[in-house]
Amino acid sequence: MSEIERLEKIKFLAGLFFSVPDIAFVLNESAKNLISLITNADTPESKAYMSGKYESDIAIREQLVRMARLGSLPAIQEIQKLQENLKIAERKMF
What we know:
Helix content is 82%, strand content 0%.
């Protein structure tokens, strides 16, 4: 597997919310080594992992907002939780 294919696989699996040790297993790599690479924000592995994770988070939130706008009560409640968590996080920042 090339380095590009490896990074694409990390991104893909992160987007499916696999844990880092599970991704390491699939890649047949040391979990300790992959964890070390992913926790260093400057590595290609970290960027691939975070990109995959956040792209999926964005897609899920987009769908959640669409469902809330259509009147889905569970979606509305989930959006309210997200808004409250955002308010709490913003208070800590400012």
